[in-house]
């Protein structure tokens, strides 16, 4: 794995105290400072051992101009931390198989990992913006672009992960149409020679979107670009029926990793003590494992979450008959009891 | 609706005879002529009243260079016919609700239409290709670009369709990140003022990919760009469990429409008499309705298909216990009997 603190475990300035520091970003930062990612937040994050991020965004800032959107702060943070590898597991827990909208036999046993390229592609490609075309008409445009090293490094991470899982890597692209995808496929195929023990396949993105619905168990590890990863990882997480349960990790070559739940900020239920805290709690577990190399501590948290589910506690999003419906706070307390 | 022959029903040179002419494209054309879209095929198509297209592609040509791929022929045909509006219905027939991998209560009653922009965006945007970046590294790149008139015309078609359906249009984009999407959203919103009776909403593409799995019934008409439409329409069609059943229509301002099944060429079962012919048969119905203005004839075909299903005939892809498993040929014959 790539994580600053596993490869360079020497203490850093900010890690003298074990108490994590809290810094604003997104909507909170906009309200406090007028920008979605204050410089102090970015530099504190860069000095940190690992970063746990709450979900961002909300109605209040939805109509902001681009540079004042909470989402822009998130993209700046990912770019500023150079966390190019976004790991998004989508697992169906036996306890929660009923909360999937997929039939039980389709959902049961799904255990896949989407490895999404996070700091390249159309999210960051230039030129981008607004302008006029040769006919004088207004246009909006973006550039999907990938360079050799960007593909090679995400491919290597994906092969490493597949190797530790079931040894199957599916690279998703649109190489029947896009040059950026043809180049992606060429590089991924080249890197495959370094991993003869991993079975590599390729799939077009439209087909992948179908196959996730048709037969998600066929997937072990998926590697794909930034925008396809955005779409497919959300689809995959919804297939598990437990999007409120799913953590993610974003890692770079060196420097701290960024850990956050896959779900958004759910502004529709804000302040109602209804949100499922488990994705954030499991993100903290990923932080311990991938960010601080504390696999045992991570396991304790993961087990506490499973135990809490086994004891029948459910927030609304994963509730099914026969269980105990609890709010966000109570769910957190129950997990604490299980540690 | 936009279709040459509804708006200009005067007979054209090629329509003197009622017998349709057959022209090669895709893999067949590559084998015969060395190119995926021979000039004669394009010009015959341009002179036609409407075009019925078989699915294209196959292992044999998978490794061809871009300009010799069957897919390239399809893109050239769409571009050459200027069919910018791709209509992809995804409907769950009561007879087939069990073939969906979604739970019955989730799949039942799904009836949505994806209106996909088909001749713009990243599929056709320039610059595109391979090159080197400032650091001398190899790159592959594409341009996502939309101009005012491209968005306005697809938006109008989508509003027209939504108006004839349940009056709800959901425009899907990634306006929290991409300028091309911000511009898309701006134009769609502007066009909305022409359709006060249609309710317009906006959704990010990642969320749309989730919502299609979570609660597909929330959608009536979806309008989106070329690449998002490619992904979401395939996902939507798989959700119905009947991708072998779904037709599509591609229409321009004037000139003939292009009608084709949503599914691919399924090279894995080629020549085994297993394919489901219903999507192609229903594409012919769409051709009659949208391409030739023959709504009654279209209805006859649609009813014949429903009748055949009611009589229990099923190809393998939509088979469920208690029905009669038939091959492609027999299915076609049964539909003929039902007309
Ligand atoms: C909020 C948005 C910018 C972000 C993205 O598109 O990357 C989100 O959808 C995600 O997947 O983390
Ligand atoms: C074959 C391919 C070029 C095509 C596309 O991407 O448009 C297909 O997937 C489709 O959706 O019709």
Automatic annotation (TrEMBL), chains A, B:
Region (Disordered): 1-25
Cofactor, free-text remark: Binds 1 Mg(2+) or Mn(2+) ion per subunit.
EC main group: oxidoreductase
Known pathway: Amino-acid biosynthesis; L-leucine biosynthesis; L-leucine from 3-methyl-2-oxobutanoate: step 3/4
Keyword Oxidoreductase in annotation: yes
Cofactor: Mn(2+); Mg(2+)
Isopropylmalate dehydrogenase-like domain segment(s): 1-335
Top-level taxon: Eukaryota
Keywords (A to Z) from UniProt: Amino-acid biosynthesis, Branched-chain amino acid biosynthesis, Leucine biosynthesis, Magnesium, Manganese, Metal-binding, NAD, Oxidoreductase
Function: Catalyzes the oxidation of 3-carboxy-2-hydroxy-4-methylpentanoate (3-isopropylmalate) to 3-carboxy-4-methyl-2-oxopentanoate. The product decarboxylates to 4-methyl-2 oxopentanoate.
Protein name (database record): 3-isopropylmalate dehydrogenase
